[in-house]
Structures are given as structure tokens and as C-alpha cells.
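Appendix B, record 7
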Amino acid sequence: MLKLGIARTLSARALTLLVLACMTQWSYADALSGTFVSLGERSGAILQILPAGEGKVVGRLRMALANGGDVQSLDFPVSGAANVESLIGKIERGPAQGGDVAISGTLSGNTLRVSSAILTTAMQRGSAGDYDSLVGRLTLDSAQKQQSAAKEAAVRKNEQDAGKAAASISMLLSNVADFSVNQPAIAERLANQMPQRWERNTEALQGLVRQMEQTSQPGLAAVSRRYEIMTAISKKGLDTSQALVEVTSAEKTFSGAGDVLRSGMADARSLCRSTPKVGRQSARLRQACGELPEAQAALDQATSKAGAIYADLMRLWQSAKTRDQDLSGRAVRLMAEYNGSRL
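C-alpha cells (predicted):
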């Protein structure tokens, strides 16, 4: 009976020691279990630690960093070992993120001082809600900054568009002004020169035909003279054609430039309707747009005036051409008659 009592007493003591040993082993891990947070103005971190038995711990590290208008978030598993006052382990990053990095920590009261290659800070016991609130604030701030940046970018773009539109319309107005002055002047100069030139050619042809009429006598000298006269008549015909080339070239330039300017005026009116008149360029754009009606009137007037002059010149040239052809035809007939053959 005594032996049995002693055995029972020893068994009870062994069981007590075993329980105490287990409780001590768990307490080492439990001392570092829980949630620790680090909250800053532009960044935050949360480390959640759970016991895994035999002095081991597992957990999760999340970090958030406000970077310009974005919030960068990182989330890694953590594993290691812990005792009452310290933690040592690794942050398990994937190969694409640089691989695992070591982490260590020292607990003092409610403060866990953590050190690693990606995070060195003093973390306080807290809750996931504390961290989530920070992330929410950072996200809201980021969204507000993005909206503000977008508004500022829109204002800058609108101002740039207004400046470009104002510059484009101002250039157009200058070109219209030059066209309205120069093109009618060119047409008027041709109108003053060409009819007289064609009339001089006609008068010269008339004189050559009279000379042809006076070479009716036979003989080699008379024949030679008639050929000289016909050569001079051909040259006068070339003079008339060359004068036409000058007119048609000027008229082509006038028509092409007018088409470009009229298209440009239509585009300018569209720009004035669609371009926001904001910022420092708004006054310049409003002024340029306000000058469009007057410029359009000047363009229309110049187009009408120069167009009428060119139309009249073409009519006069056609009349001169008919006269010259008649005179040239008479000279040809006279030469054929005097030479006794048809050319």
C-alpha cells in the first residue's frame, strides 16, 4: 500500500510537471501572438502573429504606402520562432519580389520593434480595423489627389488648346488679310496690262497682214518676204498665248488660296465653338474669334472682286484670240494665193 501511494504521488507530480512544461512552451509563443500595427501619415503596416506550436509562429505582414496618386499594397506570409521577448523569422516573398528576407523583433510591453530589409519600425498592439482605417484614408486621399491632378491637367489642356486655337486663328486672319489686299491687286494689275498687250498684238498682226497684202508680186524675194512675215505672225500668236499663261497661273493661285482660306475659316468657326475659353489664353481666343466675321466679309469681297476680274480677262482674251486667229488665217490665205499653192 505504501509503494502504491508513493507511485501515485510520483505520477501526479510528473503529470503536473508535464502540464507546466507545456504551458511554458505555449506561453512563449502566446507572448508574441496578436496584431501589431504601425500607422503613419503616408504609410502603414500590420503584422499578425499566431502560435504554431513548439515555439513556432506563423503570420501575415501587410504594408501600404501612398506613392503619388496611388496606394501601393504588399501582402506576405511570415514564419519563424518566438519566445517571451523576441521574434526571429522570415518574410516569405516570391522570387519575382526578390525572395525571402529575414525579420526580427523585440517585444517590450505593447511595443514590438521590428527590423527587416523592407520594414523597420516600432509597432503597437492594435487591430486590423486600425490598419484598414489607415488604408481607407490613404486610398481616399489618393483618389482626391488623382481627381485634383485630373482637374489641373484638364485646365492645362484647355488652356493649351485655347492658346493653340488662338494662334491658329490669328495666323488665318493674317493670311486672309494678305489675300484680301494682294489678290485683287494682282488681278487689277493683270487687268491693266493684258488687254493692252493683246491689243498691241492684234495691231501688230494687222500691220503684218497689210505687209503680206503688199507682197503679191512674183519672185524669190517676195516669197522670202512672205515667209518672214508668217514667222513674225507666229511669234505674235505665241505672245498672246504667253499672256494667257500668266493670267491662268495667277487665277489658279488665287482660286487655290481662296479655297484653302475658306476651308480654314470654317475650321476656325468650329474651333471657336468647341474650344473652352478658359485660363490666360481665353481673352486672346475670344478676340481672335470675334474678328472672324469681319475677316469672312473681307475674304468674300476680295474673292468676288478678283473672280470678276479674271472672268473679264478670260472674255477679253477669247475675243483677242478670235481676232488674231482671223488675221492669221487671212495671212495664210494670202500667202497661199500669192505663192500659187495652199499651205
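Remarks on this record: The chain has two domains: 28-140, 154-339. DSSP finds five helices and eight strands in the chain.
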